[in-house]
Amino acid sequence: MLNQGGSLDRVFQALADPTRREMVERLVRGPASVGELARPLAMSLPAVMQHLQVLEACGLVRTEKVGRVRTCHIEPGALRAAESWLSGQRTTWEHRLDRLGDLLDE
Q1: What is the SS3 assignment for 92?
Q2: What is residue 22's three-state secondary structure?
Q3: N or C: which end of the chain has fewer CB within 10 A?
Q4: CB 14 within 8 A of CB 55
């Protein structure tokens, strides 16, 4: 599977951070304001914004500002690309382990 210029690398790099994974998990349930995302996190609003910038840069999150409120939305395409890559890896390793099991049974 093609990496499409490192975009998949950036997605996995963004998801390597537990705070960003928590933000993505929240956004999967629906859009949220930056304040709503920041509320359960033990960090400053500027730190939350830095995490959001990473998520936006890799295409996992889209934000829009209406008035004084910035709302964040999940971008399912980036998650689908990561899931597709993981699924391919899982399939490959399942086949390899099946072959190993068959070899050991012989």
Answers
A1: helix
A2: helix
A3: C
A4: yes
Instruction: Say which residues have a Cβ less than 8 Å from residue 11's Cβ, sequence separation at least 6.
Output: 58, 59, 60, 78, 79, 81, 82
**d(Cα 102, Cα 26) in Å, to the nearest integer?**
43
The tokens for 71 are: 């709302």
Report how far residue 97's alpha carbon sits from residue 25's, in angstroms, rounded to the nearest whole number: 31
Angle at 59 between CA 25 and CA 29, to 5 degrees: 25
User: Rounded to an integer, what distance in angstroms lies between the CA atom of residue 6 and that of residue 58?
Assistant: 9
Backbone angles phi, psi at 44, to 5 degrees: -75, 160
pLDDT digits (tens, 9 = 90+) for 8-17: 999 999 999 9
